[in-house]
Design goal:
Structural class: mainly alpha
């Protein structure tokens, strides 16, 4: 990150210096105009790289916190098995991990987000929280099933195991609701990110076609900035979850 910061500041300083020369000293030197365009475009592209790296670092906050906790709490050892992916996945998987919920990869989250029926090994009607979880899931359009063997996603209440798609290590059936909610947050965030990326790509391509290289670089930098906002939005939506917050969040997004 330090190298990127230095590169951004250097490119910016050089572009300002060249601009000043072109405006006040060598007004009609075409070569200076070309250098100005190159340096300004490079500055925006370096800013984009810096923002992308910043989004990745921000999304891994929960991973770092849980690895530090390993020194005093062995129950978070599953964090060593949790894959890293895009900043959106890292933010959602990290939010789940802080509640002791392990998910194998982004594909599991996408599958969970579309489930109409969910089941978990170790669950039963006699468990505390079963009925309230069943009712809350029902309001989200998801049926709580007792048939874990034929479930689309292998989920277990209890100890983590590498062969599972998801594990609720705190052994709380109510955390099934949190898993479904955050999986849906991930799916919606991913969909919005793809739409934004397509719009940015079209805008950049259009600007390049008209020779507007600097503005095309700015469009790419703006797209990269969207990654940070997306990570922060996920953090906001997944912080201090309750039955009421989950219900309200699903109502607004439906």
């Amino acid at each position: 990150m330090r190298v990127l910061r230095v590169a951004v500041l250097t490119a910016f300083a050089l572009s300002v210096a060249v601009t000043a020369l072109a405006l006040f000293v060598f007004r009609h030197v075409h070569a200076l105009h070309i250098v100005h365009v190159v340096l300004t475009t490079a500055t925006f592209l370096l800013i984009a790289l810096y923002l992308l790296k910043s989004a990745e670092i921000a999304s891994l906050t929960a991973y770092r916190e849980l690895r530090q906790r390993l020194t005093v709490d062995s129950s978070v050892a599953f964090i060593a098995h949790l894959q890293q992916g895009s900043p959106l996945f890292n933010a959602c998987a990290g939010a789940l991990a802080k509640s002791g919920i392990y998910v194998k990869n982004a594909g599991v989250l996408l599958t969970v987000s579309k489930l109409e029926k969910i089941a978990a090994t170790g669950n039963s009607r006699l468990r505390e929280g079963y009925e309230v979880t069943k009712s809350a899931l029902g309001k989200l359009g998801v049926k709580l099933s007792d048939d874990a063997e034929n479930a689309a996603v292998k989920i277990a209440l209890g100890a983590f195991a590498p062969e599972l798609d998801a594990a609720i290590t705190q052994n709380k059936v109510t955390h099934l609701l949190k898993l479904v909610y955050i999986a849906r947050v991930y799916e919606k965030s991913l969909r919005r990110a793809r739409i934004f990326a397509i719009c940015a790509a079209v805008a950049a391509a259009g600007l390049l076609a008209f020779g507007q290289f600097t503005y095309a670089g700015a469009a790419i930098a703006l797209w990269a900035a969207g990654g940070i906002f997306a990570v922060r939005d996920i953090e906001r939506k997944t912080a201090k979850l309750s039955f009421e917050k989950i219900g309200a969040g699903q109502t607004k997004s439906s």
